[in-house]
Input
Amino acid sequence: MAYAEVTSLMQTLQRLMQLHPCPIQPKRKKKIESLLQKVSFLQVFFDDSGKDQCNDHEDIKYLEGIIRDVSCKAEDLVEEIMFDYSSSSGLKKIATKFLDTNLYRKIKFIEVAITRVYDDISSIKVRPTTSSSCYGGSHDLTPPLSSQKDVVVGLDDDFLRIADKLTGYPSKLDVVAIFGMGGIGKTTLAKRVYHDKLIEYHFYIRAWITISQRYSVRNLLLGLLNCTSRVPFRMDELGNEELAEQLYKSLKGRRYLIVMDDIWDTKTWNDVRRYFPNDNNGSRIMVTSRIMEVADFINPYNRPHQMRFLTADESWKLLQEKVLGLESCSDYEMERIGMQIAQKCKGLPLAIVMAAGILSKVSATPSRWSAVAGSIHSSFVTQESRECLDILALSYNHLPHHLKACFLYMGAFPEDLEIPVWRLIRLWAAEGFIKLESPKTLEWVAQEYLQDLIDRSLILVGKRSYDRVKTCSIHDVLRKFCLEEAQREKLLHVVRRFEPHFCQGAHRRLHFHLDISAYSSYTYSNPYLRSFLSSKACSVLEGSYFGCMGFKLLRVLDVVSYYFYRFPIQVIKLVHLRYLALSINSELPRLISKLKNLQTLIIYWGTKETRTLPLEIWKMPILRHIHVKGDVLLIEPIANHSKKNFQVLGNLQTLCTITISTINFLHGLVATIPNLMTLATNLVTNGNYADWLGDCLNNLVHLYSLETLKLLFNLPMKNPRPCNSIQRWDAFPPNLKKLTLSCSLLPWEDAKVLGKLPNLEVLKLKHLSFQGPEWETNEEGFHQLKYLLVESADLVLWKQASTGGYPFPALRHLVLRFCDKLKEIPYEIGDIPSLEVMELHSCSPYAVRLATTIQEEQINLGNSCLEIFIHPAR
Output
């Protein structure tokens, strides 16, 4: 993972330059700056090599390995110096002089190593290349398509949709795109359509061409002419433009179907699009691609047809037909085992075909099939599955350098785990995979990386909100590929079983999928380990577990699935730590402020006792995200935040979920977090509940960067008084996009004030946020609102003012929950053109009946896009 290691080295050198107090003499800083420029050049080399497909692949791979090893060694040396300096005490002047001399000597060593890399780069760049290194006819031309039909299961609906697009409207030349991950059946579907008798009859000319990652326009033209031209001529004597002219003439005036299978780049389409005539006779071009960007580019006006995974029944049917042919499985026990094997393939046809290949080589007995079922995942990395992994490797090899480490990192997580996106991007950033692109934040760039991997069909979307992906995962077969490739690239090592020998490897990242306490008796000291993560809790850990590990350069420590009685004080010595996730029972020590490089702090308290967050956290200026779970109280005022003991946390973006007891403290808190983007807080009223919301907003309005706000009020035990009305919408933070209120006891008429928030897109009105039996809405507010959740046990009538319009003009998703008295819903809701989904959870029969009536009326009006989901009370 050379690119990731170079990016990480650049970040480390930049941190070294910013270290305060700096252990480097000013005249020596120029050496660091010079080294930083050379490392920056290595990144440029990667960007160029990613674009230049004519470079010899093996040479580039070899050079990447050298760059990776040199970058790792350089970073180890620099961070060791930084660790020694941060850990030194006493004679600072002597220590600083020693560190400066030692660092200078090691920087010279690094420069020599990187200079050697420069020589290797130069030798590759000046090496002459031949056309065979770029082009190869055997890569471009598809062997004659077999007339034998592949076994096709579960594609009937897909076939009908594609066939309809090929033979129906419009008459002008149109492109039909099929999109999906490798091995999901794009080519199989395209072949079924291509060979269909009706399709053969409909088109006068049909041609099929498979596009490789490294193709030539000439070979592409030759392949198409072989299928379309009926006039014999010496094609090898013609130039590309003459071949293109012949192709255009061979298609002119005829209804044709051209299939371009497995397109990887938009450039491919730009190279050939002008050679296809448009005679308004219903000609079609069908393309398949693994990359959403390519499919969208080829036909931006119509969404590509996205392939789905097979269901459990379809998976078993395909497996059965591949192994047994037309015969059905008559043995009940074998059918049960076979269905189990099919389910393990997670609906990916390529994996099912691979499993069928394994089964076809063993006896068709329950015991043999059971043995395969027990080892099916390990079988995925044997020679039997090499063809499958090679197909998946095409997608990986086509990735830009900056995405490769992020993708392989997905293999670190256990099977069947949906990964919270916020956690994943925090880990990517802490590992040093993300290259900061000003003025974007690390998190913003990481979100772009994630979306790119999703669009390339490599990461699967789990839960999704209206505007973003909340959880993600990868297919098990891709995960096996990630594990194998990550191990080969020395990116990470996953400990899946009891491996007493695992400590012998120089692993920089360890991820445990078993109980890590089982290894406590082993002496494991790896001073260069960067990441220690466990995803499976089996026991309670003692803080002393980390005492003998020697992880002095550790960046990521994620053991939140384990439980510590006390905070492991040994963690404080990990001065390079950027990401810390723990579950503890004790308070956080004030020494936590020694972790000056910490970016993400995740603490789960395992008891119901109230815990406090030490104010020493406000001495950690690099901190970007604080996630705490449990009753966590901030009780001490920060009125003296301007003193040197307290710093403004200008990098802090996330603070959730904390408890605040006094307005004075809230005022001091707001002054120290000016760039906060997400805040979730419990507000303890101490009996003055009616005045709290207004006073709270008067402070929060100064958070100009705040986009997400959750205000959860703790009600007094007896006779809570309604909150004062909100008089002005500009009392809220000005750039607020998402607002959640709970127990605010506001009158429904104040919802009109919320409607004036100019950027509000998500509004969640939870338990007792608003009170009263009647809510009247109109078309004057909520112009940007896309998601609305209403929980109200006392709401009876939800009316629409008779103004001729409809409320919430941009609404996409409406959720009504626990509205068990609701008897009226505005019919105008159904007329909102953007509304896609309406959910009712534990609502009254009246509300359910009204929602169903709204849907029926919309269907009668020709709108079949509105979906209604009814979830009855449990």
